[in-house]
Amino acid sequence: MTTLTSPSLPHSEKRLYITLTVAVFAWLAAYNIIQPIANWISFTALGLAPDSRLGSSLAFFLYDVPKILLLLSGMVFGISIIRTFFSPERTRALLGGKREGVGNIFAAMLGIVTPFCSCSAVPLFIGFVESGIPLGVTFSFLIAAPTINEVAVVMLFGLFGWKVAGLYITSGLVIAIVAGFIIGRLKMERYVEDFVWQIKGGAQALGEKLTWSDRIERAWDSVKEIVGKVWLYVVVGIAVGAGIHGYVPADALAGIMGKSAWWSVPAAVLIGIPLYSNAAGVIPIVSALIEKGASLGTVLAFMMAVVGLSLPETIILRRVLKPQLIAVFIGVIAVAIIITGYLFNWIM
Questions:
Q1: Across-strand partners of 192?
Q2: Most distant CA pair in the chain: distance in Å?
């Protein structure tokens, strides 16, 4: 009598899964002990008073740095697993043939799980045009990908909870969908550089066939690469936030960025447009500003202007877009962010 047995996993795969399981439990344990350790160092080992400016700032810094790095590592790992299913070629194929409206919604949603960096803007734009994807649908994707940033989502969730993180995702989606639709309705194809329309795309492979071991290894490589690039921004951003938390008077910030200052939202967006930072650097500052009495909508509008209207991406896109279309691109997103900021202030 023949018995059927399930094939055993190769030794390398077993070791990979065991390592992943141990890493998950180590992550959970580390996340739960960082606050007691930060308080012990600040108030027991160093003897600082909890209500002192230095003590408050130091405890804020020692708690937030490992907390954000842990959250960032976990989220990047999860997002990177998802990203292994969405190559640029597959993304173009999924968006191909979609009409405006439905296409804008689908493109914006894809932008969340395919967070390509600024350096990908030009090849992605050209690839989408090659595939016959409408200009407005293309812009919905290009707006959503950097604006709804996985780092921003995890940091907002860690600092403010799921409601604020959910509002950020929802508002980013609405901005990407509406802005892309408006750009599509304006029929601005003539403001795309001529050489883009002359490029003929060839057949593209829809991606490799990856095993789960391959996906896990690639996700781990992404964690090392991304965290390796942004950890310094995290530390500097949290250091600035800690200084604001401990030393900046609450009344001063509330007067500048509070709900009562009607001009604060457009001013925050105008200030944020020429600046360049990533979410890892700007969100700790956002946290400290809000703790000091600044309005949530105003501060999030500033953050979305800094992250979503990336100066490097705008400069790179100049290679394929004429100044008129770039101006419309910036203007439509800026207006959408200002409206979102006012809406947040009204809701919250």
A1: 321
A2: 83
pLDDT 10s digits, 141-154: 878 876 776 666 77
Which of these ranges, 133-142, 146-155, 216-225, 262-271, has the smallest mean pLDDT?
Answer: 146-155
Q: Say how far apart CA 95 and CA 84 lie, in whole Å.
A: 17
Nearest CA to 337 among 154, 148, 156, 165? 148
Burial of 47 (C-beta count, 10 Å sphere; 0-12/13-18/19+): exposed
Q: Is the pTM of this model over 0.70?
A: no
Beta-sheet strands, E only, within the chain = none
Q: Is 321 helix (H, G, I), strand (E, B) or coil?
A: strand
Phi, psi (5° rounding) for residue 230? Answer: -110, -5
Four-residue CA torsion sign, 258, 261, 266, 272: negative
How far is 76 from 151, CA to CA, in rounded Å?
8
How does 318-347 read in b/e, with b if 16+ C-beta sit within 10 Å? eebbeeebbebbeebbbbbbbbbbbbbbee
- Collect all residues with Cβ–Cβ distance below 8 Å to 69 and sequence separation of at least 6: 227, 231, 234
User: Residue 154 and residue 321: Cα distance in Å, rounded?
Assistant: 32
Q: Which residues pair with 321 in a beta bridge?
A: 192
Show the tokens assigned to 20.
Answer: 């992943």
Share of the chain above pLDDT 70, in %: 69
Report d(CA 308, CA 278) in Å as an integer: 9
CB 124: neighbour CB atoms within 10 A? 19
First to last CA, the chain: 70
